[in-house]
Every structure is written in C-alpha cells, then in structure tokens.
Specification:
Blueprint (H helix, E strand, L loop, with lengths): L7 H11 L7 E4 L3 H14 L5 E4 L7 H9 L6 E3 L7 H19 L4
Parallel strand pairs: 1-2, 2-3
C-alpha cells in the first residue's frame, strides 16, 4: 500500500480481484470507504461483476462519498445507506436479513 500510496483496504480489494474472489460474490464493506471506492472503480473500469455489493462504511472521511459512488452503479445490485453512518454490524444485519428471506422462500408452504 505504501509503495502505491494507497490504503491496505484498497490493496486487499485489488488482491481479491486478482485472485478471482470477487466476481459473483457478495461483497460487504462496513468500515473502509477506500475499499468501497476501489470496488466501484473495479466495477466501472475492470468489469468486476459481484452478485451484490453491500456498502455501509462508517466515518467522516469519504464514507458518505463512497456510498454515493456506489449508488450511481446500475450494472450490479447494491444495498447502501446514505450519509456517514454505517458499520460492519449493519452489513451483517443486512446479510442476515437476506439469508432469512432466502430461507423463508425455500421453505415449503405448510
């Protein structure tokens, strides 16, 4: 990260992309706005196609802006909240809600 003047979060997203771990994946980001900005860049410029991006980074520096960038994407489904609030707890809550909906959908009608 230091060599490229980026953050470790950006480098983690780039490495995951290089390793083929992001296409078709559910990507949840609750803490690092720079990671979400990099995911948006990968979608726009590199053709990344995750199954879903849950973007809810928290904080004052770039958090709201990173979510605004995500909300401009129309090629990939996303879930986000506006503003500075968020966090990994909210990302986990969103994943649990989706899993609950999927489970309910798979249950046979009684």
């Amino acid at each position: 990260a230091r060599a490229e003047d980026t953050t470790r979060a950006v480098q983690a997203m780039r490495k995951a992309w290089r390793l083929g771990l992001l296409d078709g994946a559910i990507i949840g980001i609750g803490n690092a706005p720079t990671a979400l900005i990099e995911v948006v860049r990968l979608i726009r410029e590199e053709g990344l196609r995750p199954a879903l991006v849950i973007g809810m980074p928290v904080g004052f520096v770039a958090a709201a802006e990173s979510k605004d960038l995500l909300m401009e994407i129309d090629t990939v489904p996303w879930i986000a909240i506006r503003g500075r609030k968020g966090g990994s707890t909210l990302v986990v809550a969103a994943v649990h809600a989706l899993l609950g909906l999927a489970e309910a959908h798979q249950r046979p009608a009684a």
